[in-house]
Amino acid sequence: MADYWLQFSEVIPNLTADEEAWINAQLEGVAIVDGNEYAYELGDDQIKAGGKMIAAEKAEFAGCRAYRDMEDYDFGQHGFQVGFGFKFCDDRDTPTDGWGQHIWLYADEGAEIDLVAHFVQKFLRKFRPKDCWSLTYATTCSKPQVGEFGGGAVFVTAAEIKYESAYGFIEQQRADFAAK
After folding, report:
1. Which residue has the higher pLDDT, 14 or 80?
2. pLDDT digits (tens, 9 = 90+) for 127-141
3. Alpha carbon 31 to chain centroid distance?
4. Least confidently predicted of 22-26, 47-51, 151-155
């Protein structure tokens, strides 16, 4: 049996203190119970709401604050996880990369690309509406399984998110070839 991975590594560079504070708040786990927002620790299945403990599944929303406005967000699918790895870094003393204070977004084994894109789009809308951001990712396999290697890319602006996968590209080329 093979193991499958989705991997990427990108940054949002040159963060201001306000941007970093906003990011920290957006990546906090929250639950909405009776219209009120309560914090919870990622990974917990109980929420302290109104002085009592309740099951997280009974919340109107549970997850990272960043996803509260995501139309197709599914707690059952995503759970309490951010959906990707992240780490704040400060490379102001490293003149070669020019990233300054930044957040490193990554996946070692797997991630939810749609969650990364949604989070970054919210950031761009709030702080950098004229900027763009991109991510390329690899899908790999621990054994040479036919058709199991690929990847893709995501291009994010404040207005839209565009996805392209190696699998989608191949499917389109096959369809175009068959139509000739």
Report:
1. 14
2. 999 999 999 999 998
3. 19
4. 47-51
Residues 96 and 33: their CA atoms lie apart, in Å, by 47
| Amino acid letter for position 3 | D
Residue entry with tokens 């990554």: 106
Token duo for residue 154: 């995501």
Q: Check whether 79 has a pLDDT greater than 80.
A: no
Encoded tokens for 81: 């996880």
**Does residue 86 contact residue 106 with C-beta atoms inside 8 Å?**
yes
CA angle 20, 68, 84 (to 5 degrees): 55
Spatial neighbors of 174 by CB under 8 A, at least 6 apart, are none
* CB-CB contact of 121 with 132 (8 Å): no
Q: Collect contacts of 88-97 with beta carbons under 8 A, ≥24 apart.
A: 88/15, 88/20, 89/11
